[in-house]
Write a structure and sequence with these properties.
Elements lengths: L10 H24 L4 H29 L6 H24 L4 H34 L3 H7 L1
């Protein structure tokens, strides 16, 4: 098997990834802030967002570790999958049972999923940039002098 070569993600993809994460999370949180819900209900949706973001990043990291030959136990890999699916499932059950308008339910679901996508893409970019810099330590110096 040949040597793995890492490509640096484009600035546009890095910016789009950060924008997806930040916009998704901020819009979701602004929706919670302005919602006419009890505080415990807002706490439930906030916790699901945090749990979902953590589990998505953790799953992306374990998948990447396995691809790069870094040892990841099967139980941790499975736990990451269960956590991600559980966070999505908890959001779905919460929204299904919520006394919100269908448009509000869709708003929370889409902002949540945008946040998860952004978190995974940002984590991927962080890993790709670090791997690229490790493989090409003079790349930034060369680009700065051109």
């Amino acid at each position: 098997m040949g040597t793995v070569r890492f490509q640096k993600p484009t600035a546009a993809f890095v910016a789009a990834s950060w924008a997806a994460l930040i916009i998704g999370a901020i819009v979701y949180l602004l929706g919670l802030w302005n919602a006419a819900m009890q505080l415990n209900e807002k706490g439930y949706y906030f916790t699901i967002l945090m749990y979902g973001l953590f589990s998505a990043v953790s799953l992306q990291k374990t998948v990447r570790d396995r691809l790069e030959g870094i040892s990841v136990t099967g139980i941790y890999f499975g736990l990451c999958w269960v956590s991600l699916l559980l966070s999505v499932g908890l959001l779905a059950v919460g929204l299904f049972n919520a006394t919100l308008a269908p448009s509000e339910k869709g708003f929370y679901a889409m902002a949540f999923l945008l946040s998860l996508f952004g978190a995974v893409a940002v984590q991927k970019n962080v890993r790709d940039i670090a791997a690229y810099k490790a493989e090409n330590p003079l790349a930034d110096d060369i680009a700065a002098t051109e």
